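Usage

Read records sequentially. Each one opens with the input sequence:
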Amino acid sequence: MDKKKVFERFKGQDVFIKTVQKPQIEGSTKAALNRKGNILFNNGDIEGARRVFLTTGYTDGLVRVGDYYMSKGRSLDALRMYWIAPDKKKSEPIIAQLSNLIHNLLKEEEDHFNE
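and closes with the structure output:
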């Protein structure tokens, strides 16, 4: 089995985590933005809060957004937030689940080709 071909089905899909360097923001501006992000989050505008927290790099906010995503079954979105935060305690179990999933997919492919 050509293991490179296994991942060809994912070409063109935005399935991997892309991270960027955190911008430099003045302390007072960052605090004001984080307060705004917290207000958005508490009012249910999770996506608005996510954008603010990504901009400021506010780790607690990113983790809260990740927790929200997990509660909605959006584990890949949660992983992205935990990875950027960074929160290894929360990201590692998701990574382990994904590793197991990929392992099982590869095994199925291999079993299929060996039949």
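Summary fields computed downstream for this record:
- The longest helix spans residues 88-114.
- The chain has a mean pLDDT of 87.
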